[in-house]
Every structure is written in structure tokens, then in C-alpha cells.
Amino acid sequence: MVAASRCFNILLRCKTTFIFSSSLVRGLGNRVSIPHYPPHNYFTCVRLFCPIVSKIVGNYNSLATQAARDDEGMADEFLNQILATYRNAPNSSKERCNAYVHKLCKAGNLSTAIRLLQSLRHNNIFIPNAYNTLLAAAAERNQIDLSFRIFKDLLVFHGPLTLTCYLNLARSCADTNDCTALIRYVKQVSDLAFPNNMIVINRIIFAFGECRQIEKALLVFNQIKGFGCKLNVITYNTILDILGRAGRVDEMVLEFTSMKEAGFVPDFITYNTLLNNLRRVGRLDMCLVFFREMDDSGVEPDLLTYREMIEAFGRSGNTGEALRLFNDMKQRKIRPSIYIYRSLVDILKKAGKVDLAMSISQEMNSSTPDLFGSKDFKRKRILDMRSRAKGQASTMNNGVNWLN
């Protein structure tokens, strides 16, 4: 063992990379240069050390192969157990399967996990939670091939997927630069989802945006026609929001122009997306342009739109425009909120318009029972969520996109 250790130390000082095999040992001493060691020692070192390394590597490979076989054997045994108990105890069988898949994923044995799940599927047993667990594990390891494989199974055999599934799919693509492969995978998903493929494509675009993979979202967006899909307002709204949140407001405005040129009519969400993102980067001049266009198009702004516009102009020092918007809101019979009043009073005080601030404050105090408060906002949010959920259900039945 001491001799082997000395040989190993000598070889570590060598500047040549070895591929150990018996055919390379002969004559190796003539090709290796190790300072202060006579040439005949090189051959002796390699001749002594090569069998040791070969044995270690061979033992490791043997152990790894045996471990893989053991995992496969255990998976086959587990599969037989599930098949035997599923009919009489489906719920407990699903729980056991999900726990076993979680264990395999934690050990990094994703290939055995997918093989087990697909074997169960071939026996008409589909366990969505186990697939979701595996999809999350594949996303953590950036295994795009496996992620799309799992995603397609979920899409075909499980139906409408949660947002988490889409986000995990997007995360699995984080490290890939192979645009051709990505588009090929998305095209396969689109074909499987027909006739509701725009639902799926819109959500994939949205997920890429949420994961800050802007270029991939734009890539899919620009390839939609090649998928045999038709763009809709929701697709454009999603892209506008992705570009806006990334600070790419000029591209956002250009895409909005393309949207109108393509014959799509902007809706309330479209204009609010433009206004919110332009306001964030201080482009208040353009906010006014789109706010007026919104009004001219017959799309009425709501209380939150007014609040954000009033606060934005007030903070920028344009109290005149803030007051004009406030009066416009009241003329439209939109019930003001106590937050708008407080914000406006604070803005006017900072601008040195104390008398006007006091007047607005008195108006607020006299109108307090009729003002929109925190409870009203919560109630409105709940009603909006219920309304949106009903809309999603009905549009799903009609094969129409229901994102957002």
C-alpha cells in the first residue's frame, strides 16, 4: 500500500493526463516527464499503480451497476404491490406511491420514478400528485427533456393543470440555450392540447415571464402562428405585462401598436397594464395619452386606475393634473376611497397648498360614511375573484382561453 501511495504521489506530479489501460503502460516512461525522477521509475510506477486503479474503478462501476439494478428491482416489487392493492384501497395506494416517488426524487433517481409512474399509467393508474412531485424534482435539476415528458403526461391524462406545473416547466428550461429544441417541445404540447392549445400556450408564456425568462417568453410568442394557434387579447396582455415589468416599455408600446394593427380591441386589462408600467418608470406623459385613448375607446377606468394616476402625478409635483383627475373621477360617479383623499391631502400639503389641502380634508371628513374603505376593497376583491373563477369555468367549457 505504501508503494502504491508513493507511485500515486509521483504520478500526481506528472503533467500528462492518463487513461489507464494495459495497452498504454508499455513505453509510457518515454512519454512522461517528471522532474528529478529517472525514466525507468515512470514505468515502474505505472505498472504498479495501473492494476490498483483499474480494480478500484471496476469495483465502483460494479457497485453502481448493482445499486441501479437494486433500485429497479425494488421499483418493480413496489409496482406489483400497488397493482395488487389499488383496486381495494386506491387512496392509500396513491399516498404510498407519492411517498415512494418523493423518496426516489430525493435520492436523485428520477429515471426510476418516471419508469414506475408510466408503468402504472399503462395499467390505467394515474397519480397526479406523484407526477407533480417528479416535475418539481426535474425542474430543480434543469432536466428539460424529462420535464416536458412529465408535463405532456399530466396534460393528456390529468386535464387542466395548476400554475405551479407551468412554473416548474419554465424553471426546467432556465439553463437551456437550445431554442430549436424548446420550440419543438412547445409545439408538441400545443398539438396535444388542441383545441384548447391557446390556453396552454398563454400559460407557458406567462410562466416564462414569471421566471424572468423574458426571451423565451418572446420566442414562444413569436412562434405561435407556427403552432397553428390564433393569437388573442389575453396573449397580447400577457406579453405587454412581461415587457412592462422588465422595464422594456418602448417594446411594450410597439407591441400594443401591433396588437391594434392586427385588429384586436384593447380591453380594460390592456390599458391598465400600459398605465401601470409606464407610471412605474415615470413616463407620465405617455400615461396621459393612453388614459385619454382609454376613455375615447369607451373603456372606463376604475377606482384603482384613478388612485394610481392621481398619486403618480401628485408625487411628480403636477398637482394640477392630480386634481383634474380627482374631479373627473367624481364626475363619473365613481365613489372615491379614503386613501385617495388622504393621498391628495398629503400631496397638496407638500406642495405648499395648505388651504386647498384643508378644503379636501374637510370634504373627506364630511363624506366618510360614503367613502370606499379597506372592507370595501376586500369585498370587491372577493367578488372579482368569484366572477373571474366563473368566467374561467365557462370559457374552459367553450374551449376559450381563460388566463387572467
From TrEMBL:
Gene3D superfamilies in UniProt: Tetratricopeptide repeat domain
PPR repeat placement: 232-266, 267-301, 302-336
Pfam families (alphabetical): PPR, PPR_2, PPR_3
Keyword annotations from UniProtKB, A to Z: Repeat
Keyword Endoplasmic reticulum: no
Keyword Repeat attached: yes
NCBIfam families: PPR
Family per record: Belongs to the PPR family. P subfamily.
Protein name: Pentatricopeptide repeat-containing protein
Source organism of the structure: Gossypium lobatum
